[in-house]
Amino acid sequence: MTRKKERGIALITTLIISGIMLTSIGLFTREMLDEVKNSTRIDNSLIAYYAAEAGLEEALLSWRYNKDSEISFENDTNANVDVTDKTNNSPRCVNLDKDNLQMGRLSANICTAAGAKDPKSRYYGLKMWYKTPQIQNLQVNRDDVVEIGIPSLTGDLKIEWTPNPATEILAGSERSGYRMEITVYDEEGSIIPIEKGGKFFTSTFNKSVRIQSSRTGVGKKIIRIKPWYTKSLPEPGTNIYTEGSAPKDSSIPFVNLNITRGSSSDLMTTPKTIIESTGYFGNVVRKIIVEMDRSTGQIVGMLDYAIYAESELVK
């Protein structure tokens, strides 16, 4: 009986040790497979990034020769359509492994539909636009000038603004002495006279101005907006007061502009051109978003996103 018990205990011990070893081997194998997958994803992510860069370079080249360039699948089909962030904005889809870019252009849904792309090929989806139906919270610093184009003004345009709260340094209802100079130009570049509603120099109490198409006339317009500060302001970082409130730090004076179109058919040209290029390879996605100042041509903002398996955002 003793020997049988010893054999039974030895068998149980052997099974336990074997189970532990098999579990350890399984966990080790899983870790190794995960490492291989992650390594492959990193390699694919780099290739996808280069594909996105290729799309970005194409957009920058197009912008170099024509700063009014627009890029989308719809615009390639019909050059007269307007591209915005919400309309006619399917990407131009290009397979970089084709012989040339023209042969590599594909239907937009190849880049947007999951599983439609060959994971062994490099693609990019490209969009570029500068028009918008509405401008919200556009920051304009002191002494800056913002130019807004209206390709076809058919309805009234409402321009509203709010100042940086830190510049509200005066007591009572009077503001910090800022005024807004708004000038409207026609399509020939001539200033529309004051009596026709083409020139405004607002008081310190104004918060908005309406550009009336019935006075300025319909058609193409260019609107230049400049904030003026007519009173001395403290240096940034100085403690300032408003009546009935705690002290706060001063900062560089600016206003936030909000511009609303009067007609659903009217679009505005923004001070920036936006380029969005998305690269694809091996079920990995990399996206680059660039903002360009339309007056200087300088890149003023750039964001880079990495997305694995077109679903998992890597932070």
Describe it for me?
- It is a single chain.
- With 315 residues, the chain is an alpha+beta fold.
- It folds into 2 domains: 46-132 and 270-314, no CATH class; 138-266, Jelly Rolls, CATH 2.60.120.
- Helices cover 26% and strands 36% of the residues.
- The protein has 5 helices and 17 strands.
- The strands form 4 sheets. Strands 2-1-3-14-15-16-17 form a 7-stranded antiparallel β-sheet. A 4-stranded antiparallel β-sheet has the order 4-13-6-9. Strands 5-10-7-8 form a 4-stranded antiparallel β-sheet, with no helix packed on it.
- Strand 15 (284-293) and strand 16 form a beta hairpin.
- It starts with a helix and ends with a strand.
- Mean pLDDT is 80; it is low at 169-175 and 311-315.
